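User: Second chain of the day. Same drill as before.
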Amino acid sequence: MLTQAPRGTRDVLPTDSYRWQYLEAKMRQAAAEAGYREVRTPVFEHTELFLRGIGDTTDVVQKEMYTFKDKGDRSITLKPEGTAGAVRAFLESNLYADALPSKMYYLAAPVFRYEAPQAGRLREHHQFGLECFGAKDATADAELILLAYRLLSGLGVKNLSVRINSIGCPKCRPVYHAKLKEFLAGHVSELCADCRSRYERNPLRVLDCKVPHDQEIVRDAPAMLDNLCEECAAHFAKLQQCLTAAGVPYVIDSHIVRGLDYYTKTVFELVTKTKDGNLTVCGGGRYDNLVAELGGPELPAVGFGMGLERVLMLLDGEGIELPKPRLYDVFVTYMGDHAIEAFSLVQRLRAAGLKADMDHCGRSLKAQFKYANKVSAAVTATIGDEEAAAQSVKLKNMETKEEKLVTWAEAAEAVSGMIE
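Assistant: Same format as last time:
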């Protein structure tokens, strides 16, 4: 057990980390282009934050949170999603007093959910999330959807579609809840145990049930879209106009409610078709009441979350290879007792911005060349007795076999010229 990672977790090994770094760089670029700046919040928060923010009728709170008592007898929870922590940081630092909207993102942020591990769903996974505070217009919703769509499309993801819905606001949702409960009244005994509880406390959650029999029951349930108040209807109409103007293909899916209670008005998912069925790769929406619910001012907000593991799994499934960086620009080999000269040259090359290394294992010159070839070094730089005496080095392009003899002072510029 000491050499086995806990179930539902996964190591990112050095041979694979470049893929994460490439994806993270693309995500940072996409966020920066839209004016989002990074926020980093703790891995754990007070449990009450998630109880109040996410909602105690959700599966996340009821079944999936890693909650424990610390040594001060305080209830602490490893964060199961990123939004609540971002809102807490926004309030604690009084960022609502700054110029609005306040745009922030988090990247490779670990989140924890105790659920059955499966493809693209781990107990510890990492999210890319964007949160926009203080923007009430549907253009902010559309901006986030478009950002996610362009990011995934730019990575090469095919068969990508945007699904949108509106789940109303506190003004119009109670009327819809009454109609939904009336529809479900004759089927309560047929629902799963969780949904029988949801029926009384939050009937909207029934629409989010993954049990096939319950999904069949709600197939013909009344739609929230038919019961929106004037404000919510106008907001949803403007969202559609923005997406159409941007050329984003979308469909309206009245059964999207998302799994967290804080959502209002817009909810959306980006879905792609795979050989195993549809895969949701990004989800989010508007949460206009959460800031006030957690003790802040009345302030609209909208955001999304995207799992990095799921994106990488999707890229693998579609055969999309991310660019693999070169490990070494130059590998310094040496003969005899010239390790110190080789070491000094490596430092000179690194100071010039080149990725350089040397043998640290006492290998023979032949074995050093074999290793340099194995790690795909672009250039080898060899120091023998004659080179050491003349403070020179023999460079060799490992692909073209071009060779040249240069001084140590010229080495960095010469290597750069050979690898361009």
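The chain has a mean pLDDT of 93.

User: Great, on to the next one.
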